[in-house]
UniProtKB/TrEMBL annotation:
InterPro entries: Homeodomain-like_sf, HTH-type_TetR-like_transc_reg, HTH_TetR
Residues of the DNA-binding region: 33-52
PROSITE patterns according to UniProt: HTH_TETR_2
Protein name: TetR/AcrR family transcriptional regulator
Amino acid sequence: MESRREQNMRLKRGRIFRAASDLLRARGFSAVTTQEVSAAAGVAAGTLFRYAATKSELLLMVYNEALRASIDEGAARAALTPDPAAAVFARLHPLVVAAAREPENSAAYQRELLFGPHDAKFRAEGMALIFELEASLSDTLRRAAPTLSDGEARVAGSSLFAVTHLAIARMTASDIPEADAIDDLRRQVTLIVTGVLHTPRRPDPPPEKE
């Protein structure tokens, strides 16, 4: 059973999340202040900072959930797609579409994930989602090529997310149309997956001696 204190904390966090989400989506990261979020959530500024210490943490709190939703959508689409390259693209496509809807916030979110404080709670949660996504991409390739080594699969999964990150960064930082960014990503995914699946297998090198 949930205690009264736990229930109050959950409800306050929900109000903060909804207030931050509404304000960020309506006005953009640069225009929103933590004072506005605390007022909209009906909590004191000190209370807000117990849940998210900075505006960047509020951004990560909100867009981690958006990232999770995009990953779940991509997984559902990939499950219906037998071709490996198409399945990988199906996993990644929702991330680019979501970023195109909110370019300013998406660019800020990527920046905080890459360069935010390493001990920040919500940054760690976001990075965990990315690592899980990379692992799912590696698993897709392993199923298509059972002889793929763990090292090759891991590097390929990281590479596939990297080109997705770059596609989003280029789209949010310039005037590249969404359709062009998505088409470029499709081509890059196809090249990477085709290369991985058709490259002769070699054993992983032994670990270096200290």
